[in-house]
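pinned: reference chain
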Amino acid sequence: MERLFEPLLTQLSFFATGLGVIALGAVAVVMLLMWGWRSALFGLVLIQIGVASLMVQVHRLSIQWGGVQILTTLLCVSLLGLSARQMRSRQAARPPGSWLLRLLVVVMLLASWRVFDIHLAIPLLNPSVERLFLWLSLCALTTLALSDSPFFVAVALLSWSIVMQAVVELLAPGTGLYAIIGMAQIVVALACSYLLLIDLAPAPKPKPIPTDMTFTGLPSARLLPTPERRMLPERSGAAPPQQPPPRPANAAPDASAVAEGAQ
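pinned: its structure tokens
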């Protein structure tokens, strides 16, 4: 592994200069402004290579440590890239507002850094590297605050891990803590990749439970006209009831009626 990464970490002296430190800080700003999954993954790999080269050349960390960090970051970037590629139509990286809003956030972050004079007190760390690590941590915190996507949550946590790996190896060399942090990085990348793939699946629709309110929205059925009942014909053989003939007004009273009245 040392032979594989020795030319990259020892001969790439650009990141060990002041201009290289500024370039790494500018990469973090570009990742915030562009807010795309391709630019974020490319910037993450570039920051990891730059930090590893810087720590190997300035603080004399082992080449094996730098190679392990680069391989871990490449594995995490590959996992996130495969998941984000499946979400082209659904926009895996949802931007939090316009680029002008993100530019305003970066300007306010720079102004706050200069006004409040934020600095880290880490022993054995070069002052320029200390400021770079502080800036990378602030950019990661800003990304975590602005994003609601699992993809950029992973990018922010991996950016923090790059800084943490360098500081832990500088303060406690030879303890193997970088292996534990590297495993945590892979777990974070796997978890966020899984959350990205969950967004691809359609939300399950619950089965409706039939109630009285369920049928109110249904269209009313067309009522068929009821057929008219035909009246039964009258019986032709029956004779109509006979009415008594009308009695004239000046007719003499009936004898039976007079006898009944006398009794």
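why pinned: The radius of gyration is 45 Å. Residues 2-200 form one domain.
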